[in-house]
Every structure is written in C-alpha cells, then in structure tokens.
Design a protein that fits this description.
11 helices; binds NADP nicotinamide-adenine-dinucleotide phosphate; Rossmann fold
Length: about 290
C-alpha cells in the first residue's frame, strides 16, 4: 500500500477523503492539533517520519470574509505554510497534491467564457490572494498537482447548502446573489477526482477540479429547495445589493467558471453539479 500523509484530515474535504483513502492507502492523517502547517520544522519532521508517497494538503484558512480581517493568519496558513509542505514533499521525493480555488481568478470574463488552467490569475479577495501565494509555493515541490475547486459542500462541515437549508426553516423568502457564476462542487466529487489523480498520475501541474456545469448562487439555492421540497421563495439580488447589505463582505469573482477539459483529457470526468447535489441531499436530509 502506498503511504499518504493527509494534512487537514478533519476538515470538510479532509474528513471524507481520509475515510475513502483508508480503503486503498496507508494513511497518516493530521489535524491542526497534531500538526500546525505554519510550523516548518514540525512539517518537515512529520514527512520524514511518515515517508509518504503522496502528501495531500486539505488544510486551509477557509473563511473568505475572515481573510479580509485576519490577513496575516490567512497568508501564513494559505500561502507561506504551503511552502513548508512543498519543501517536505521535495525532501522525501513525495508527490504533493494541494487544493486551491477558483477565487484566484479575477472573474471578470464575460459569462459565455470560462477559465482554463493557463489563464492568468488575479484575485479580487484576500482569500484568493493568499491561495495564489499557496499555489506558487506548492509548485516548488516540482512533483505536484494543484487542484482548483469551487463552491465546495459536503456532509462533514459548514457549507452553503446547509446554511440555505437552515435559513429556509424560519424564513418565507431568502435573497441570494444571482450575478456570480461558478460550479457548486461536492466533496464526494472532489474526492473521486483526487483518487483519479492518485491512480493515473498524469502530467504534473494545475487541474481545474469541480463538478460539471455552471450556475449562480441564486439558481443553486432554487435547485436545493426544489430537490429538498422546500417552498421558501428565493429572490435574486445583485452583488452590489449584497455588498450594500453586508459592507464587510469580501468581493467575489462574478464569473469563476472553470474549464474541465484538461481533467477530462486524462480520463477523469466529474458528474454534473445537479447530480452530485441530489446525491448529497439524499444523505444530508436522511
Ligand atoms: N469550502 C469551499 O467552498 C472551498 C472552495 C474552494 C476551495 N476550497 C479549498 O478546499 C480545501 C478544503 O476546504 P474545506 O472546506 O474542507 O476546509 P475546512 O473544512 O475549513 O478544513 C480546513 C481544515 O484546515 C485546518 N487548519 C486551519 N489552519 C491550520 C493550520 N495552521 N495547520 C493545520 N491545519 C489547519 C482547519 O482546522 P480548524 O477547523 O480547527 O481551524 C480545518 O480542519 C481548502 O484548501 C480550501 O481552500 C474550499
């Protein structure tokens, strides 16, 4: 069995990934309590102890609005610390799999256009800026995969779907942004993509890794309510209106649609976001 060092093994993605990988790999999982990735010496020592074939980083500072306030911590975790992991991977000749985000893009493309891996990132948020530094540091591992995902939801963590389900319980109407375009992605789909990358070991580099198809937050919410049989009305608003309601909120790309051609060319085909959402809701609503 190949050895895997899975960092961030109790997060929303990391928790599900750990459960799945344990069936086929010898997994050592770490959490913030057992390995703080901002501690360079500790990261190098852990990799030396485990001697993994793969190091997977699911740890991050993921509060997008919080990154605008706690910029130093966000940069330390999402940016600088990724360099510690890349260094550890290189020292052990391990392959580094790092999770990044659609928010590295400015999101100002017309909505009939989508981002490919070779397009220039230029984040509009502190979160995106810190994750971009993380990408640059991850690439120092040389044997690396950077998987950019988006709008992630899963059973084991706080996420947009759970928030909408919760809010629908005591509101007749919710207002949701309808001019930001992207791909809701289930942790299950992302786990399958990661497993595909681990099995196939395609050319190193960046791979856009989301569910297939695109929508807006508003249409995503309407689909959640349709599948969950919820009658709460969903009113569309613009990002500008949202920002007026929540001035502290981070700017977000209006179009962060990611092309999956590169992933498909290596034989990894993510399912449509609607299919993944339906599967997720069957479990979530049990
Ligand atoms: N969620 C999304 O919508 C989304 C979208 C695009 C990309 N992504 C990326 O997908 C990946 C997985 O996200 P997720 O939603 O599963 O995140 P998550 O649930 O927030 O999990 C991240 C984990 O990292 C841990 N962590 C924070 N600081 C750490 C440190 N210094 N050392 C070690 N561990 C630390 C957190 O611990 P505590 O909880 O104790 O702080 C948490 O367990 C991340 O790279 C994220 O940037 C997520």
């Amino acid at each position: 069995m190949k050895k895997v060092l899975l960092i961030g093994a109790d997060g929303m993605l990391g928790g599900e990934l750990r459960e799945r990988l344990e069936k086929n790999y010898d997994v050592t999982g770490t959490t913030l309590e057992t390995l703080d990735i901002t501690d360079r010496e500790a990261v190098l020592a852990k990799a030396e102890e485990v001697k993994p074939y793969f190091i997977i980083n699911c740890a991050a500072y993921t509060n997008v609005d919080g990154c605008e306030i706690n910029t130093d911590l966000a940069m330390a975790v999402n940016g600088t610390a990724v360099g510690n992991i890349a260094e550890a991977a290189k020292a052990q000749d391990a392959t580094f799999i790092h999770i990044s985000t659609d928010y590295v893009f400015p999101g100002n493309l017309p909505v009939d256009q989508i981002y490919t891996e070779d397009m220039e990132p230029a984040p509009v948020s502190a979160y995106g800026r810190t994750k971009l530094v993380g990408e640059e540091n991850a690439a120092k591992a040389e044997k690396y995969y950077i998987l950019r995902t988006a709008w992630l939801y899963g059973l084991g963590g706080k996420n947009f779907v759970k928030t909408m389900l919760r809010l629908s319980k005591d509101r007749d109407e919710l207002t949701v942004v309808d001019d930001q375009h992207g791909s809701p992605t289930s942790t299950t789909t992302l786990c399958k993509i990661i497993e595909g990358i681990m099995e196939k070991e395609p050319e190193y580099g960046v791979y856009h890794s989301t569910n297939e198809g695109f929508t807006t937050w508003c249409r995503f919410t309407r689909k959640i309510f349709e599948l969950a049989n919820i009658s709460t009305n969903v009113k569309a608003i613009t990002s500008k209106e949202y920002k007026e309601m929540y001035p502290q909120s981070s700017d977000r790309p209006s179009n962060s649609q990611l092309s999956k051609e590169k992933l498909k060319n290596v034989g990894i085909i993510p399912e449509a976001w609607e299919v993944a959402l339906e599967e997720y809701l069957k479990e979530e609503l049990k």
